[in-house]
C-alpha cells in the first residue's frame, strides 16, 4: 500500500439536518454554512504487506478521514493512493441498512455490495453467525438485536469477508471482554497470512499490543511513522499526560 | 473490494484512488463495477420488498390493493366532477394511466430515500452508489408488475379493444423505466442536500398527476396549453401508454420522439448529477 502526497478536502455543512428552508433563510441573510475541511494535508507513506498499522492522534486529527480514503469511500482531492488486495473496512459500526431485515439478509447484502458472489456470501454467512455468537438471532429482524449483538455482527462481517487489508476504526470497544479477546485473536490470525491491518484507536494499550508500526497524525499531517514504542512515547509526551494506566485504557 | 472483474484473484487486485476529474469518477471502471454488482441491487430491492409489508395484515396483497383503491378514489372524484360517471370504461382509463404513474411516483419517492437511507453501507464500503437508485426503481417496478393483471381484468370487464398495437406499449414502459432511473438519481442527490425534499414530494407528485394525462386523454389537453404539453415528460410517456394499451391507437411520431428524448435526458442528466455529487455523500450523511 502506498500513499503519495495525498490531500483531502471536503465541503460539508454543520447543520444537524440540512433543509431547504434553512438554506433559503441563510441565502436571505447572505451567509454560507458550507465549510471547507482540510482533513488531510499532503501525506505520504508506504506500508509493506504483513504490517499491522496503528493510527493515533488527537480528536479531529484526520484519522477517520484517512481510513475512509484508504477504503476508497472518500477519494482524495490530490495525490494518489495505491492499494493491493481486497479491503474490508469497519469504519462506522453496524452492517445494518434495514432494521426490518434479518441479520442474515443484511450480511448477504453487505457481501454482495463488497463484490463477493452469491455463493461466496452464503458460505460466509454461517461463519459470520457462528463467530458473532448470535445464534438464532441471525434469522430475526435486526431491530430485535441488542447493541452488543449489533456490534459483534458488524465486526464479524468485516473479518470474514476474506480481506487482504482490514481497516478497523475503534471497533474493539465492541462487545464484552470475552468477545474482545476473541476479536483480538481473530485479527492476529489474519495478520499471520501476511495481510495488512489498520487500526484506529484511542486505546494506546491495544495499539501497542496489536500493531508493529504506528502512524501518528496531527491536524492532517503525518508527524511520525515508527515503532509503537517510539511513536506512543512521542505522542504521550506531546500530550504531556505521561503513560499511565488511564491513558492506556482510553485517551 | 473494488474488484475490477469478479474473477480476478483478490491478491492481484490493485485499487488506485485518485482525485475525480471534473468531479466525475472514471466512467469506464465505474460502469464495469456497476454491472458486476448488479446482484446487490437486485437483492437489496428484493429484501426491501420482503421487509416492507411483513407487519401488515394483508402483507404483499397491499401491492395490488393500494393502487386499486387509489384508482377507485379517483374514479369517484372524476364521477363527481363530471357529473356523469362514464361507467367502467372510465375506470379502465384511470387504472391504465394511474398504475403507470404510481410506478413513476414510487420510483421517485423510493429513490429520494435510497441514499440517505443507506447510511451505514455508504460509510463503510466503496461501491458505485448509483446502485441505490437503481435498486429503488427495481423495487417500484416489481410493485408495478402485479397491478398489470388488475388492469387487464378491468380492461376485459370494460369490453376494451384487443389489438396487436397494444404490444407497442412495452416500448413506452421501457422508456418510462429509463426515465424513472434518471429521476430517482436526481431526487436521491437532492435529498442528501435538502432533507425536506421528501416532505415536498407528495404534493409535487400530486400536482404532476393532475398535469399528466391520467384522468384525461392526451388529445383532450386544453387548447391553449397544447403546445406546452410536451414539456411534461409524462404527457408523452403516460399519454402514449394509455393510447396504445387502452384504445389501441398508435401515437403520433412527435409523441415517440418526445418520450425518447425525455427518457434519455433524464437518464443521462440524472446519472451525471448523481455521480458528480457521489463523493460528498460520505461526508454529508
UniProtKB/TrEMBL annotation, chain B:
Report the principal subcellular site. Answer: membrane
Q: Does the keyword Transmembrane helix apply?
A: yes
Keywords for the protein's UniProt record, in alphabetical order:
Membrane, Transmembrane, Transmembrane helix, Transport
Subcellular location per UniProt equals: Cell inner membrane
Its placement in the membrane is given as: Multi-pass membrane protein
Would you say which domain of life the source belongs to? Bacteria
Annotated signal sequence range = none
Q: Which residues cross the membrane?
A: 57-78, 90-110, 130-154, 166-194, 256-275
Family indicated by similarity: Belongs to the ABC-2 integral membrane protein family.
| Name of the protein this chain belongs to | ABC transporter permease
What is the source species? Occultella gossypii
Amino acid at each position: 500500500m502506498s500513499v503519495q502526497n495525498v490531500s483531502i478536502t471536503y465541503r460539508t455543512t454543520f447543520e444537524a439536518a440540512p433543509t431547504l428552508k434553512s438554506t433559503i433563510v441563510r441565502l436571505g441573510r447572505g451567509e454560507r454554512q458550507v465549510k471547507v475541511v482540510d482533513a488531510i494535508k499532503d501525506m505520504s507513506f508506504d506500508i509493506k504487506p504483513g504490517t499491522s498499522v496503528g493510527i493515533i492522534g488527537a480528536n479531529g486529527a484526520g484519522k477517520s478521514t484517512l481510513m475512509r480514503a484508504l477504503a476508497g469511500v472518500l477519494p482524495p482531492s490530490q495525490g494518489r493512493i495505491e492499494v493491493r488486495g481486497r479491503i474490508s473496512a469497519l469504519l462506522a459500526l453496524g452492517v445494518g441498512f434495514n432494521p426490518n431485515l434479518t441479520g442474515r439478509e443484511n450480511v448477504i447484502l453487505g457481501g454482495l455490495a463488497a463484490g463477493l458472489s452469491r455463493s461466496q456470501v452464503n458460505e460466509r454467512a454461517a461463519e459470520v453467525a457462528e463467530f458473532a455468537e448470535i445464534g438464532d438471532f441471525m434469522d430475526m429482524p435486526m431491530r430485535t438485536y441488542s447493541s452488543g449483538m449489533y456490534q459483534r455482527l458488524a465486526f464479524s462481517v468485516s473479518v470474514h469477508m476474506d480481506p487482504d487489508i482490514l481497516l478497523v476504526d475503534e471497533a474493539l470497544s465492541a462487545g464484552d471482554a470475552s468477545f474482545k479477546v476473541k476479536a483480538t485473536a481473530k485479527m492476529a490470525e489474519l495478520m499471520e497470512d501476511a495481510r495488512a491491518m489498520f487500526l484506529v484507536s484511542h486505546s494506546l494499550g491495544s495499539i501497542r499490543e496489536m500493531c508493529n508500526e504506528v502512524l501518528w497524525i496531527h491536524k492532517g499531517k503525518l508527524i511520525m511513522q515508527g515503532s509503537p514504542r517510539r511513536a506512543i512515547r512521542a505522542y504521550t509526551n506531546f500530550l504531556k499526560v505521561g503513560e499511565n494506566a488511564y491513558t492506556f485504557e482510553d485517551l | 473490494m473494488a474488484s475490477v472483474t469478479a474473477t480476478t484473484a483478490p491478491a492481484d487486485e490493485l485499487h488506485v484512488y485518485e482525485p475525480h476529474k471534473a468531479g466525475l469518477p472514471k466512467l469506464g471502471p465505474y460502469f464495469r463495477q456497476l454491472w458486476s454488482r448488479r446482484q446487490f441491487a437486485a437483492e437489496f430491492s428484493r429484501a426491501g420488498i420482503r421487509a416492507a409489508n411483513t407487519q401488515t395484515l394483508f402483507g404483499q396483497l397491499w401491492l395490488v390493493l393500494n393502487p386499486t383503491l387509489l384508482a377507485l378514489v379517483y374514479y369517484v372524484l372524476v364521477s363527481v366532477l363530471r357529473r356523469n360517471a362514464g361507467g367502467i370504461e372510465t375506470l379502465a382509463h384511470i387504472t391504465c394511466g394511474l398504475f403507470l404513474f404510481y410506478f413513476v411516483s414510487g420510483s421517485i419517492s423510493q429513490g429520494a430515500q435510497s441514499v440517505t437511507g443507506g447510511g451505514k453501507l455508504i460509510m463503510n464500503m466503496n461501491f458505485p452508489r448509483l446502485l441505490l437508485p437503481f435498486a429503488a426503481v427495481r423495487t417500484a417496478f416489481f410493485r408495478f408488475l402485479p397491478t398489470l393483471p388488475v388492469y387487464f381484468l378491468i380492461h376485459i370487464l370494460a369490453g376494451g379493444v384487443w389489438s396487436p398495437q397494444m404490444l407497442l406499449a412495452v416500448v413506452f414502459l421501457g422508456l418510462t423505466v429509463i426515465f424513472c432511473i434518471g429521476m430517482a438519481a436526481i431526487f436521491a442527490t437532492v435529498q442528501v442536500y435538502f432533507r425536506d425534499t421528501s416532505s415536498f414530494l407528495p404534493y409535487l407528485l400530486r400536482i404532476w398527476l393532475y398535469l399528466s394525462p391520467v384522468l384525461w386523454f392526451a388529445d383532450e389537453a386544453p387548447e391553449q396549453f397544447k403546445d406546452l404539453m410536451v414539456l411534461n415528460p409524462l404527457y408523452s410517456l403516460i399519454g402514449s401508454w394509455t393510447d396504445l394499451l387502452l384504445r389501441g391507437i398508435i401515437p403520433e411520431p412527435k409523441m415517440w420522439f418526445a418520450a425518447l428524448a425525455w427518457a434519455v435526458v433524464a437518464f443521462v442528466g440524472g446519472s451525471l448529477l448523481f455521480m458528480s455529487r457521489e463523493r460528498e455523500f460520505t461526508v454529508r450523511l
